[in-house]
Amino acid sequence: MARSVGATLKTLSALSFLLACAALLSACGGGSDSLDGRAASLTVTNASVSGLDGAYGDGNINAIEVTKLPATGTDPEMCSFGFDGADRVGGDGTASGTVRYATNADSLYRLILNVRGREFATANGDGDDTDVHHSRDYLEIVNKRLTATDGTGDTLRVTGLLTLRGNRPAGC
Known about the structure:
This protein has 172 residues and is α+β, with helices and mostly antiparallel strands. 15% of the residues lie in helices and 38% in strands. It has one helix and eleven strands; from the N terminus they run αβββββββββββ. The protein has one helix spanning 2-27; strands spanning 41-45, 54-56, 62-63, 67-69, 78-87, 94-102, 110-115, 118-121, 130-133, 138-148, 155-163. The protein is globular and about 40 Å long.
């Protein structure tokens, strides 16, 4: 009897381990394009223009294919991709944009964000408050200040996560 109880405990322990692994893999998309279990989304705060603050994306932000751009002038060789489909949660509007980062870099080079028809961007090379997690296939933006590109001086802050596609060029 003791032997069968021990064997049963080993079997239950093994099953528990397998179920835990399955739950972890399903939480992060089967082990690819992982956001460590977090959903792709962007949150806009402190916008100097009314009606832009809010959460955009419900985990279904579409990342468009990553391409490698050659170095030009003062700009380094870069990886670039667009994203769209970031619908405003609980309200009208959508967000989309373009992300650029130098090859093998750990921070963004430029972020352009279109929010409800307005375009905001970082300055070239302003990678503060951003992290590119190559090995985990996502980038993270933390309270990043963007300025309107139309010359008005309007600003907003954005925080969020975006998926990096797994099939990107080397260095991206």
